[in-house]
Specification:
binds magnesium ion, six-stranded mixed β-sheet, OB fold (Dihydrolipoamide Acetyltransferase, E2P), binds adenosine-5'-diphosphate, five-stranded antiparallel β-sheet, Rossmann fold, 358 residues, alpha+beta, 27% helix
Length: 358
C-alpha cells in the first residue's frame, strides 16, 4: 500500500488485551485456560502452538464468534464482550474456503465495503488498491475457481484489509499452501502488516513461520500460554523443555546443579548464571551451538555415529559417554561416521531449565 493509505490506517490502531481468558466447551472440555496476552498497537503477534492447543478457540473469542467462559477481551482497554462481531472491527482470514465461490474476485473484495454502504466510486477505488497491494492488480473480473490456492489467499487478505480493520486475525492462512508459496506469502503478509500498521494476531503451528513474520510470539500448549517473547528468545532462552523441543532442540541433559556446575551423564558441565536454585535441572544446547575442537571449558570426547547432509550443513548424531547428542557443524565441515572428535559446549549457549516433571 502507499504511504498515503498507511497514514489513514494509523488512525484506527488498536491494542488488544486478553485477560484471564478461558473457554470450557463442556464440563471437563477445556480449550483455553487463563490466557493473558497483550498485542500492542501496530504489532504482529504470532500465536504459535501444536494442533489442538486452543489457538482457533482464542481467535474466535477475540472476533466475538464464541463467548468466553471467563475472562475478558479488551480493545484499547475497553471490554468488547458485549459488542457483536460485526461491530468489533476485527476481520478474520481462515486457512481455506475464504472466498464466496459465486462472486467475482472484485465483488468478493468489495463485499465488506458494500455492507458498509460506501459509494460506488470509493468501493471501486479501494478494491483496486487492495488488489494491487496483494499483487493481483486487475484481477477484479476473475472467479475464485480460476485462481491458484496462493492467489485465493491473497484475495482473502485483500478482502480483509480493504475494510481497514482495527484488528486483523489470521487463522493459519498459509497452512494449505506448498512450501515455496508459503514462504513467499509470509513475506507479503509481513510487508502488508508493516505498511498498514494494523494490529495483527497471526495463528500458526509452524515455528519457522512465526519466527519469520512476528514481532513477538506467544507459544501456547494445552490451552495455556507458555512463553511470550521475541523470535530469538525462543532459540536462546526457551522457558521449558517442551518449548525448546517445539523450536527444534533435541539435546537434553538432566543433571544436578551445584553453583555454576551441573553433574550430567556426560560429566560436569559449566553453566551460565541462572536464577534456578541448586538441585535437579535440565540442560539443553542447540545442535548448531555445539562446537568442534577444545576451547577452555566443557570439552568432551565424542564419536560420530551418523551424518546426513541437509542443505546447507551436515546433521550428525554423536555419542558422548553413552549419551546421544545432535550436532550441526559449520557449513563445509565434513564429518564421517566412526570419527573420534572433541566437542565444546560453550557455556553461554547452554540453557538451564527446570527439571521435567515425571
Ligand atoms: P487449535 O486451533 O490450536 O488446533 P482449537 O482451538 O481448534 O485448537 O481446539 C482446542 C481444543 O478444543 C481441542 O481439544 C478441540 O478438540 C476442542 N474444541 C474445539 N472446538 C470445539 C467445540 N466446538 N466443541 C468441543 N470441543 C471443541
Ligand atoms: Mg485451529
Amino acid at each position: 500500500m502507499t504511504c498515503h493509505s498507511a497514514t489513514r490506517y494509523f488512525a484506527t490502531m488498536t491494542t488488544l488485551t486478553l485477560e484471564n481468558l478461558s473457554k470450557e466447551y463442556a464440563p471437563g472440555v477445556t480449550a483455553v485456560t487463563n490466557l493473558n496476552l497483550t498485542v500492542q498497537d501496530g504489532e504482529l503477534m504470532a500465536l504459535l502452538g501444536p494442533s489442538g492447543c486452543g489457538k482457533t478457540t482464542t481467535l474466535r473469542m477475540v472476533a466475538g464468534l464464541l463467548p468466553p467462559t471467563a475472562g475478558d477481551v479488551l480493545f484499547d482497554g475497553r471490554s468488547v464482550l458485549n459488542v457483536p462481531p460485526e461491530k468489533r472491527g476485527a476481520v478474520m482470514v481462515f486457512q481455506e474456503h475464504a472466498l464466496f465461490p459465486f462472486m467475482s474476485v472484485g465483488d468478493n473484495v468489495a463485499y465488506g465495503l458494500k455492507m458498509r454502504k460506501l459509494g460506488r466510486e470509493e468501493i471501486r477505488q479501494r478494491v483496486a488498491e487492495a488488489l494491487t497491494a496483494v499483487q493481483l492488480p486487475n484481477f477484479q473480473d476473475r472467479w475464485p475457481d480460476q485462481l491458484s490456492g496462493g492467489q485465493r489467499q491473497r484475495v482473502a487478505l485483500a478482502r480483509a484489509l480493504v475494510v481497514r480493520p482495527r484488528l486483523l486475525l489470521l487463522d493459519e492462512p498459509l497452512s494449505n499452501l506448498d512450501r515455496g508459496l508459503r514462504e513467499e506469502l509470509r513475506q507479503m503478509v509481513r510487508q502488508l502488516q508493516q505498511d498498514t500498521g494494523i494490529t495483527t494476531l497471526f495463528i500458526t503451528h509452524d515455528q519457522a513461520e512465526a519466527v519469520a513474520v512476528a514481532d513477538r510470539i506467544g507459544v501456547m500448549m494445552d490451552g495455556r500460554i507458555r512463553q511470550i517473547g521475541r523470535p530469538r528468545d525462543f532459540y536462546e532462552h526457551p522457558a521449558d523443555a517442551q518449548v525448546a523441543r517445539f523450536f527444534g532442540t533435541d539435546n537434553f541433559l538432566p543433571g544436578v546443579k551445584q553453583g555454576q556446575t551441573v553433574a550430567t551423564p556426560i560429566g560436569p558441565v559449566e553453566i551460565p548464571a541462572t536464577p534456578l536454585p541448586d538441585g535437579p535441572v535440565l540442560l539443553t544446547v542447540r545442535p548448531e551451538a555445539i562446537e568442534l575442537g577444545a576451547n577452555g571449558h566443557n570439552n568432551f570426547p565424542a564419536q560420530v555415529q551418523s551424518c546426513t547432509f541437509r542443505v546447507p550443513a551436515q546433521e550428525c548424531q554423536v555419542n558422548v559417554n553413552g549419551v546421544n547428542l545432535h550436532l550441526i557443524p559449520p557449513p563445509y565441515t565434513n564429518l564421517r561416521a566412526d570419527k573420534e572428535i572433541l566437542i565444546h559446549l560453550p557455556r553461554e549457549r547452554i540453557c538451564v531449565l527446570p527439571p521435567e516433571e515425571a
